[in-house]
Each structure stands twice: as C-alpha cells, then as structure tokens.
Amino acid sequence: MKTPSKITIATSVAATITLATLSMPAWSTNALTNSQVWTTSNGSPIVTSNGNPVRTIHFKKPRRASKLHAVKVKMTPVEEVKVVQPEPKVTPVVVATPELVVPKPVTPKPVLPEPVKAVVEPVIPVVEPVLTPLVEPVAIEYTFNDYSATVLFDTASSTLTADATGSLTQLAMATANVNSILSVQVVGHADSRGDESYNMTLSEQRMNSVAKYLKSLKLKVTSMFAQGESNPVLDTNGENLELSRRVHVAIKTRRLMD
Least CB-packed of 8, 23, 145, 184 within 10 Å? Predict the structure, then answer.
C-alpha cells in the first residue's frame, strides 16, 4: 500500500500565482474509488471552475506508480465557511406580577364662581321739608254747668212716681245741648223711721230705680251711693220725713263758648 503523495498544482486567483498543496488519497488497488473528493491540506474541497468538486474519477490511474502526471486544475477559491454556532435559545421566564389596578383619574368638576349679586341700594327721594307758617293755637273756652234734680218717694216704696219721672225727663232735656257730660251721680236716702239696716236697703233700691230710668234717657250713671237714714232733711220742726225719702241726681257738663 502506498502513502499519499503531495502534488503541487499551480492556480491563478485574481492575477496572483499561488501554490496549493493537495492531499491526494492513497493509491491502492482496493482503497481508491471514483467518488472520493480531492481536498487541500486544511481539508477544504477542491472545485473546478464550474464549482464542482474534483473527484478521483477525473484522473486515470497511472501505469507506473513512480510517475505522476501533472494535471492542470483550474482552482476556484473557496470562501472560508464560517461555522456560526447557534446561540442557545433562551426561553424567557415570565414572572407573574400582581396586576396593578390603576385608579381612573378623577376629573374635578369645574368650580363655577358664584354669580355676583348686584346690590341695588334703594333710592331714597329727598323730600324737602315744607315749612308752614306757625299758627298760634286758638284758645278754646268752655263753660261748665251743673244740673241737679231731686225726686221723692212714698213711705217704704222705691217706685218712681209721675212727678219723679217728669223731673228726670226735664233734667235729661236740659243736658241735651251740651258738648259733653262729664259725670252723672246718683245718691239714695231714707227717713229715720224703721230699722237702720232696712233704711239702708230701701235707699239702695230707690237709687237703682233712678239709675235705670236715666239709662233709658241715654244718660250713663258714673257713680252711685246709698246712705240710708244717715243724712235726713231737717227743718224748724225737726226731720222732714217727706223730703228725707229722696234720691238726688247731680250732672256736670261742659259746653263750648260761642
């Protein structure tokens, strides 16, 4: 078995003559095959101008092992093939993070300024004082008059007689033309005969009879008194019993002077 021989082949690449050392498979009757590829010393395949690799089939087996024919082979430079190692595939690790709840932004409501209320001051009219000439007050003069009447009653009676009603009527007529009645006073009496308490009650009853009649004549009584037998009417013979059974009416009036 023969060892591989080194053959030097001249190649032309870019107008420069370079020498490439070829490594040819060992010549043996059994080891060589027609499909083996020729390579350079660094293991790169030798290709033809057509880019096909040079195989053993392209050369004839020499008759003599000592002589080798130089074969002109047009060498096409073979670009150095860089073997790029694939980067290891890194599987990203997904770390579950808690979902952050982002609150929705709250848009503040626009604050509208409060309307300015117009302050309208009331227009106060200026009223000039009206000067009036001073008028001296007119002196008003009144006359004051007193009217009175005395009505008599029968013994142990409080009933008005005809003479008594006539006297009271004339009294009312006399005071009709006055401007105002200031007071109407009624005082009842009784004579000294009989019990004192009885006489007091009888004088009170006579007083009420006169006041009732004056009211019917539109005269309002302002004061009334019952004196019983305490104030009898006396004359030269002693007590006048007829005059003591009486009711005295006194009226005060005011009248404007002409």
Answer: 8
pTM for the full predicted model: 0.47
Give the number of domains in the chain.
2
What is the Cα–Cα distance from 176 to 111, expressed in whole angstroms? 84
Minimum mean pLDDT range among 68-72, 86-90, 112-116, 217-221? 68-72
Residue 227 lies in a domain: yes
- The whole domain housing 213 covers 142-256
Q: What is the pLDDT of residue 209?
A: 97
Neighbours of 73 (CB within 10 A): 20
DSSP string, 189-223: ---SSS-HHHHHHHHHHHHHHHHHHHHHTT----E
Q: 178 or 95: which carries more pLDDT confidence?
A: 178
In a domain, 74, yes or no: yes
Q: Distance (Å, rounded) from C-alpha 24 to C-alpha 3? A: 9
pLDDT for 186: 97
Domain for residue 132, yes or no?
no
Q: Which of 36, 61, 78 is the last residue of a domain?
A: 78
In a domain, 216, yes or no: yes
Specify whether the CB–CB gap between 184 and 251 falls below 8 A: yes
Q: Hey, CA dihedral for 62, 68, 69, 75, is it positive or negative? A: positive
Specify the DSSP class assigned to residue 57: G
